[in-house]
Amino acid sequence: MTLQVPAANLASVAVGQSAHVTVTGVPVMDGSVSQVALLPTTASGSSTSTYAVDVLVPAAPDAVGTGGKASVAIVTTKVDGVLTLSLIHISEPTRPY
């Protein structure tokens, strides 16, 4: 799939980065950035440039057709060795947050 990334965010996108693709009615799919355009695209009537970024989803199920809408989150930062807890596990029973 191809998405448009604003020029201001392009520096944080590179080939090989992980991506998570969400399509209604289908579990979140894992993919990766396979190509980043070298030249910008400017929509008519817009003063901001975007760049085409291709995301490859190798295990997309047949339920995902062409031409539909999807949300894509490109992983730009990854931290290893970090403990994460749900807020409910660290809230005080008398003072829920």
Descriptive tags:
97 residues; single chain; six-stranded antiparallel sheet; mainly beta; extended; 6 strands; 37% strand
Q: Which quaternary structure do these chains form?
A: single chain
- The helix count comes to 0
- Main β-sheet description: 6 strands, antiparallel
The number of distinct β-strands equals 6
Gyration radius (Cα, Å) is 18 Å
Proportion in β-strands = 35-45%
Q: Give helix % range.
A: under 10%
Write up what this structure looks like:
By secondary structure, this protein is mostly beta strands. The protein is 0% helix and 37% strand. The protein has strands at residues 2-6, 18-23, 26-36, 41-42, 49-56, 71-74. Strands 1, 2, 3, 4, 5 and 6 form a 6-stranded antiparallel beta sheet that branches. The radius of gyration is 18 Å and the shape is extended. The termini are far apart. The relative contact order is 0.27. The mean pLDDT is 84.
Write a brief structural summary:
The protein is mainly beta.
Break the fold down into its secondary structure elements and pairings:
Layout: E1 2-6, E2 18-23, E3 26-36, E4 41-42, E5 49-56, E6 71-74
Antiparallel strand pairs: 1-5, 2-3, 2-6, 3-5, 4-5
